[in-house]
Design goal:
The protein is elongated and about 115 Å long. The chain has three domains: 9-95, no CATH class; 105-171, SH3 type barrels (Roll); 178-275, Alpha-Beta Plaits (2-Layer Sandwich), CATH 3.30.70.100. The chain is built from eight helices and ten strands. The N and C termini lie far apart (129 Å). By secondary structure, it is an alpha+beta fold.
Length: 312
């Protein structure tokens, strides 16, 4: 009768090996259950934000169950491993300091409210919309660079969470979900500047008036939460005269995702309104006009050179 070698027999019936096998099988089962849950439950959830959070919750619950499984299986050996873990901890902390800093950054982001999924931020010199927050990295859909205005350029950037401790974090949409934006309109001297101001203010109120009540509500919450003064969210038109033209600045609040489309609508309305004034209000531009030079009569003197009269 065939007998197994002694070392194989010892290895197969070693309690530690049995526990390792149990943990591996348990983790595989947990992973399968997580995948099945995501495939069956996520399609039934409406709303991108809710679906994203539920997917993250399922993943977190899977990791938690796996951690509990490992703790329960190896509970009788944790006491013996405490000293070994303490000795190895210092070396691991030094080797994985960037990873540990990123995990700490994730905790700070989650608890401190630096930003959340859907916010537009600038972190580590990258500007974009946050599309995922992981334990180690934040994933951002980048805007700008070679693309003008606040439009996506197609690059997905993953930023280490440790950046929240090293550099400022600019959030475009945290407590106040709007931005102040401005456009500059040059008006030619001789135009009816009172009428120009009225036109600009009316157009601004027409285009961005729907944002004013919401922005006012958000700002009132900001005043209660922070040491900050009240600010006007109504459209504002200011004027300054320089050497070339009368310069109007239109200031208004706008949804941070609609800056470019709003500027397009504002300038379209402004041009139409100015054209409808029949020259009473005209845009100015830096143009240069070439004029005819005056006619000069030039009389050339004659000099005697080498015995010949040569005009010079």
């Amino acid at each position: 009768m065939f007998e197994l070698p002694s070392f194989v027999h010892t290895w197969l019936f070693d309690p530690v090996v049995g526990k390792i096998v149990t943990v591996i099988i348990g983790i595989i089962i947990i992973n399968i259950l997580v995948r099945i849950s995501r495939r069956t439950l996520l399609p039934r959830i409406e709303g991108i934000d809710t679906r994203y959070r539920f997917r993250k919750l399922i993943g977190f619950m899977g990791m938690l169950v796996g951690f509990i499984l490992i703790t329960v299986v190896f509970s009788d050996r944790l006491g013996n491993l405490t000293v070994a873990f303490g000795v190895a901890g210092a070396g691991i902390a030094f080797a994985l300091q960037e990873v540990i800093a990123s995990i700490a950054g994730w905790a700070a982001i989650s608890v401190g409210g630096f930003y959340s999924v859907g916010d537009r931020v600038q972190v580590g010199g990258i500007v974009g919309d946050v599309i995922d927050i992981g334990i180690l990295r934040t994933t951002v859909m980048e805007i700008g660079q070679w693309v003008k205005a606040d439009l996506y350029n197609g690059r997905i950037v993953r930023i280490a969470n440790s950046f929240v401790f090293k550099e400022p974090v600019f959030n475009y949409s945290a407590d106040f979900h709007f931005l102040w934006d401005e456009i500059t309109v040059p008006v030619k001297y001789g135009s009816d500047y009172h009428r120009a101001r009225e036109i600009l203010l009316a157009i601004a109120q027409e285009q961005v008036g729907d944002y004013i009540p919401h922005a006012q509500k958000d700002w009132e919450q900001m005043v209660k939460k922070f040491m900050i003064e009240k600010a006007t969210v109504e459209p504002l038109v200011t004027m300054v005269a320089n050497d070339n033209w009368i310069e109007f600045t239109v200031r208004y609040v706008i949804d941070f995702k609609k800056r470019r489309s709003t500027k397009d609508a504002l300038f379209t309305k402004i041009l139409d309104a100015f054209n409808a004034t029949d020259g009473a209000v005209s845009l100015a531009s830096a143009t240069f006009q070439l004029v005819d030079a005056p006619t000069f009569t030039v009389k050339l003197a004659e000099e005697k050179l080498y015995g010949q009269n040569i005009p010079t």
